[in-house]
Design a protein that fits this description.
Strand content of chain A: 15-25%
Oligomer: heterodimer
Distance between the termini of chain B: 25 Å
Shape of chain B: globular
Radius of gyration of chain B: 25 Å
Number of strands of chain A: 5
Shape of chain A: globular
Distance between the termini of chain A: 82 Å
Structural class of chain A: alpha+beta
Number of helices of chain A: 7
Chain lengths: 208, 261
C-alpha cells in the first residue's frame, strides 16, 4: 500500500513538472512574435545604420538571431543527406562558413525600420515541428512569409524561412547539391569561402 | 514517401525486437542501426514538408546557363546603370504614374484569367479598379484605389497570367527554359506569355515591331527604376554560391506558389 501511494505521488510530481514545463514553453507563434519584436526594436535604433558602427551592429544582430534561429539545423538541411557522411569538423566548418555567407548577403546594408507591419495569420503544430504564417506589409506591398520551427533543447527554433513560396534552405540545397554531386564537401566549403571573400572585397570597394 | 517511411519504421521495429532476444554483441549493432536510422529519419522528416513541390527537368542546361550568364552580365552592366540614370533624371512620382498606366493597361489579362480560374470577386475588383482608374485616374496614370479599405482586396490574390491558369488546370511546366533578355521560364509559362500577348492591348496598337519592343523596353526600364533598392534578383543572387541554380529554384517555387493561390 505504501509503495503504491509513493508511486502515485511520484507520478503526480512528474506530471506536475511536465505541466509546469508546458506552461513555461512558448507557442511557436509567440516565439516568432518575440523574435520579430526584438528585430524591430533593434532596427528602430538609428545607430544601427551608421557606417562606423556597422560591425558592432552585425554582431548584435547575430547574437539575437542565434537565440531564435538554429544555424546548425539550417546548414544541415541545406546540405542534405551528404551531411551524414561528413566528419564533425567538416560540419562545423561548413556551418560557420554558411553563417558568414548569410550574414554578408542579408546584412550587407542593415535596413531601417520604416513602419513595416507584420500580421500573424496562422500557426500549425505537428509534434516537434511547427509552421507560423505571417504577412509583412511594406507600403502597398504584401509579402507572405512562413517560418518553420523545430523543438531544440526544449525551445522552438527557426530552421527555415519561406518567402513567397521560396524556401531559403531548399534554395541553397539546389545550389549545394549541384556542387556535391560533382565534387567533395571540401569543394563546397572552398566555394562558400570564396563567395564570402568576394562579397567582402565588393563591400570594401563600395565603402571606399 | 510516407509509405516508405512507414515501412522503414516497421522494419526497424522488427529488427529491434529481433536483436533484443539476442546476445550482447548484437545489441551494440542495434544501437548503431538505430543511430543511422535516426539520422536518415530526420532528413525524411524534413523533406516530407517539401515533397509536394514539383521537380522540373533542365535538359537544356548548357544553353540556359549561357543565356543566364549573358543576362546577368547585361543586368549589372547595362540595364541597371541605365535605370539608375533614368531614376536620377526623372522624379519618382511620374515614374509611378507610368507604372500605373501600364498596369492598368493589362486589365484584360487579369480579368480573363480571374474568370477562367473562378475568382469572380477578384474579377469584380479588377473591373471596378479599371473603370475608376481609367476615368478618375486619367487613363490609368493615377491609382485612385490605392489605400482603399478591404473591399478592394479579394479573398484570393488576383490573377497574373495564363501560365498560372494552365498550372491550376494541372498542366506541368514541361522543361525549364531561360530566354534571352526575358529571363526564367518554362514551356507552360512561355505558352502563357503568348496567350497573355493576345489580351494585351499593346498588341493591337498600330506599332511596328521595333516600336512595340521599344515600348516594352521602356516599361521594363521604368519598373526596374522603381525597384533599384534591394530588389529580389539582387537579394537572391548576391549570396548565391551558384546563381543559376538559385534563380531556377526560386522561379519554380514562386510559380508553384502562384498556382496555389
Amino acid at each position: 500500500m505504501k509503495k503504491l501511494i509513493l508511486t502515485l505521488v511520484l507520478v503526480c510530481l512528474l506530471v506536475g513538472a511536465a505541466a509546469a514545463q508546458e506552461q513555461d514553453a512558448q507557442t511557436p507563434k509567440a516565439r516568432i512574435q518575440e523574435g520579430m519584436d526584438n528585430l524591430i526594436a533593434m532596427l528602430s535604433d538609428p545607430k544601427m545604420q551608421e557606417p562606423e558602427h556597422h560591425d558592432e551592429a552585425i554582431a548584435e544582430l547575430r547574437k539575437v538571431a542565434e537565440q531564435f534561429i538554429d544555424f546548425g539545423l539550417v546548414t544541415k538541411f541545406a546540405v542534405g543527406r551528404p551531411w551524414l557522411d561528413m566528419s564533425p569538423q567538416m560540419r562545423t566548418d561548413l556551418t560557420n562558413a554558411f553563417v558568414r555567407l548569410l550574414e554578408r548577403s542579408y546584412l550587407k546594408r542593415i535596413p531601417a525600420y520604416e513602419g513595416q507591419r507584420i500580421e500573424y495569420k496562422n500557426e500549425v503544430v505537428s509534434g516537434k515541428k511547427a509552421k507560423v504564417l505571417t504577412e509583412i506589409f511594406d507600403k502597398d506591398k504584401k509579402i507572405i512569409v512562413e517560418f518553420r520551427l523545430r523543438i531544440v533543447d526544449g525551445r522552438w527554433m527557426i530552421y527555415d524561412v519561406v518567402a513567397e513560396g521560396v524556401s531559403l534552405v531548399m534554395n541553397y540545397r539546389s545550389q549545394f547539391s549541384a556542387v556535391l554531386d560533382s565534387g567533395t564537401p571540401e569543394d563546397l566549403l572552398r566555394l562558400i569561402n570564396e563567395k564570402v571573400e568576394k562579397i567582402d572585397e565588393v563591400q570594401k570597394s563600395e565603402g571606399q | 514517401m510516407a509509405a516508405a517511411l512507414l515501412v522503414l519504421v516497421f522494419l526497424l521495429g522488427m529488427t529491434g525486437a529481433s536483436f533484443a532476444a539476442d546476445t550482447a554483441p548484437k545489441q551494440i549493432l542495434l544501437a548503431q542501426t538505430v543511430d543511422t536510422g535516426e539520422g536518415g529519419d530526420e532528413f525524411d522528416d524534413f523533406d516530407s514538408d517539401y515533397s509536394d513541390e514539383e521537380l522540373v527537368a533542365d535538359p537544356l542546361y548548357y544553353w540556359n546557363l549561357t543565356w543566364f550568364n549573358i543576362n546577368d552580365f547585361l543586368y549589372f552592366n547595362a540595364f541597371k546603370p541605365v535605370a539608375e540614370g533614368y531614376a536620377w533624371l526623372i522624379p519618382v512620382r511620374p515614374r509611378r504614374w507610368v507604372d500605373n498606366f501600364f498596369t492598368n493597361l493589362l486589365f484584360p489579362v487579369r480579368f480573363v484569367n480571374n474568370i477562367l480560374t473562378g475568382k469572380f470577386d477578384a474579377a469584380y475588383m479588377e473591373t471596378s479598379k479599371f473603370i475608376a482608374n481609367t476615368s478618375f485616374g486619367v487613363l490609368g496614370f493615377g491609382d485612385v484605389t490605392g489605400g482603399m479599405p478591404r473591399n478592394w482586396e479579394p479573398e484570393r490574390p488576383t490573377a497574373d497570367g495564363l501560365g498560372q491558369t494552365l498550372g491550376k488546370a494541372g498542366i506541368g511546366h514541361g522543361v525549364y527554359l531561360y530566354w534571352p533578355l526575358i529571363g526564367p521560364s518554362s514551356i507552360r509559362e512561355s505558352v502563357g506569355w503568348v496567350g497573355d500577348a493576345y489580351m494585351d492591348p499593346l498588341t493591337y496598337g498600330r506599332f511596328t515591331f521595333l516600336e512595340f519592343v521599344a515600348i516594352r523596353a521602356y516599361s521594363n526600364l521604368n519598373t526596374l527604376s522603381l525597384q533599384l533598392q534591394g530588389n529580389e534578383y539582387e537579394a537572391l543572387t548576391e549570396g548565391a554560391v551558384d546563381k543559376y541554380a538559385a534563380v531556377r529554384d526560386a522561379y519554380i517555387r514562386y510559380r508553384a506558389k502562384k498556382v496555389e493561390e
